[in-house]
Amino acid sequence: MTCATDSATVRFWRDDALDAVEVRYSHFDGYRFPAHVHDTWSVGLVDEGHSVFRLSGRSQSVRGGQIAIIPPGMVHDCNPREGAWTYRMFYVQDSLMRSLARDLSGGCHDAAGSGGDVAAFDSLVIDDDEVFAALSGFQRLMEQGADAADTVDAPDAPDVLDKRSAMTEAFSLLLSRHGSVRDELPPAGSERAAVRRIREYLADNLAEKVTLEQLAAVSGLSACHLLRVFRHETGLTPHQWQTQLRVNHAKHLLANGDPIADVAFAAGFTDQSHFTRTFRTVTGATPRLYRMAG
């Protein structure tokens, strides 16, 4: 499904057989994203333009032909320095990245992929034509598969094995050349533990109206100290974090085909119009477009 205006074109691709990856094509001219966070890895191919993304207080420049890597849970914004830009983004579940990293490292880490091993990258902006081409090839297969699904007779449509093989090869190449598997260090310090408790509470109550007093009780910090520490650790206020959680939850429900009005309610928004405005601000696309992606 494609959504186009004079200044923006956005398209999403999903495949039930490849539920660990969602692919997006975007062309924007003048649109700027607010600071936000994803619960997946974001691997971006910049096709045209020059963008700067801010991540954990640092600014990174990325140009056409380069690959941008944003880990899950990292607050960031990514906007063009000037004019238009075009990019393709892969939203990759952490479980897939952990599994591939573990396989590449010889399988010496937790076999469940959920213990102490994490995929990691030394650089968040990568120049590698072969990896760029491999990821582009996987994206084209996803696009061809979606187009074929809209065609009655499509004998040349890529099958699941073809797409899964391209996905595995592309992300394995990315990890083998530029990534590693490392031990996950537990967060240290009482303040960081307090922030973790707040994040867990917001996730468990994402559709509820959470008060600052409740978060202070959960964290064991005063309201003033809580706000300062949380913003320092995450880059967002607790309310902004909860809004991002709501949008991420809404994306999962929309991908399952749930009605937009039901999704708005389930994700804690006051009404459908409020949900639509917030979703578009955060993602650059409408809930209807996202729901209709195939």
TrEMBL record:
The cross-references to InterPro entries, in alphabetical order and at most eight, read: AraC-bd, AraC_XylS_family_regulators, Homeodomain-like_sf, HTH-like, HTH_AraC, HTH_AraC-typ_CS, RmlC-like_jellyroll, Tscrpt_reg_AraC-type_HTH
Instruction: Name a GO molecular-function annotation.
Output: DNA-binding transcription factor activity
By its UniProt entry, which Gene3D superfamilies does this protein fall under?
Homeodomain-like, Jelly Rolls
Coiled-coil-forming residues are none
Boundaries of each HTH araC/xylS-type domain copy? 196-293
Q: Which UniProt keywords apply?
A: Activator, DNA-binding, Transcription, Transcription regulation
SUPFAM superfamilies linked to this entry: Homeodomain-like, Regulatory protein AraC
- Could you identify this protein by its name? AraC family transcriptional regulator
- Origin species, per record, is Desulfovibrio subterraneus
